[in-house]
């Protein structure tokens, strides 16, 4: 009897180990593809798929489903390496995206942005209790901050890398968002584009100092490097993070745009709004137009550029046809 029990335990253990090994294999393949419903992180595409003179690391993709639609676009621009990273998830009950702009050297910035995106993508793709979403996003921020702060190079030296972060989730007609650094989240409604986030750079601190009477406007204007970040993921204790105080109600036809500073430094907000107004019913085409205009405007000095568009429900034209 004891031998039978022993063999049963051994057989069960073997099956558990086999199942775990198969799960690891599936998980590795899923990550290589970009993670189920999540769009892939790998931004490189074969050069032979692009026309002459095109950026070999330019990519534009879109996805639609019962919940709504999303599209994203990313390009290296004129930079030596790609330090932007993003992921977007379209589920039956929500749509979400995370976008990061890394910094800290060629290797460090890329690793920091990808590490942070992986942490948040796991939340977006696997989170089941959306009523606890805000708490989960805070925990993900703390986890990503620790991981990025601990990144090392091949010699074991700390990389001193960091990354910006914007994350947005649409669910049940509401928007929840989180921001660190100077990447941005916009809400496009009724032809108007409104920035929901603050740039966490030294200019923000200068404005606070002027408002508090600690310096005058002329002193503030004389300060250089106003765009230097005062908060980012990887500080091992994020100095400043903004989150929507409560889920913001969405209206039919609303678009949510997440973007790195590569887009907003190349295109004025009025032009971005015009493209969204003209092509907003086709998010993939809209994302592609914005990216290509930014690349053309920035030329050989264009920064890494990435953006994500999110919409809950059908496009306005589709809703009208229904």
Walk me through this protein's architecture.
With 322 residues, this protein is an alpha+beta fold. The protein has a single domain, classed as Phosphatase 2c, domain 1 (4-Layer Sandwich). The chain contains 9 helices and 13 strands. The relative contact order is 0.15.
Distance between the termini: 68 Å
- In the CATH scheme, the class would be Alpha Beta
Radius of gyration: 22 Å
CATH-level-4 superfamily name: PPM-type phosphatase domain
Number of DSSP helical runs: 9
Keywords:
globular, six-stranded antiparallel β-sheet, 322 residues, single chain, 13 strands, 39% helix, Phosphatase 2c, domain 1, seven-stranded antiparallel β-sheet, alpha+beta
SSE blueprint and pairings:
Blueprint: H1 2-33, E1 59-64, E2 68-75, E3 84-90, E4 95-103, H2 106-126, H3 133-149, E5 162-163, E6 165-171, E7 174-180, E8 184-189, E9 192-195, H4 202-211, H5 217-222, E10 242-243, E11 248-249, E12 255-259, H6 261-266, H7 269-279, H8 283-298, E13 305-312, H9 316-321
Antiparallel strand pairs: 1-2, 2-13, 3-4, 4-5, 4-6, 6-7, 7-10, 7-11, 8-9, 8-12, 12-13
Helix pairs in contact: 2-3, 7-8
Brief account:
By secondary structure, this protein is α+β, with helices and mostly antiparallel strands. It is 39% helix and 23% strand.
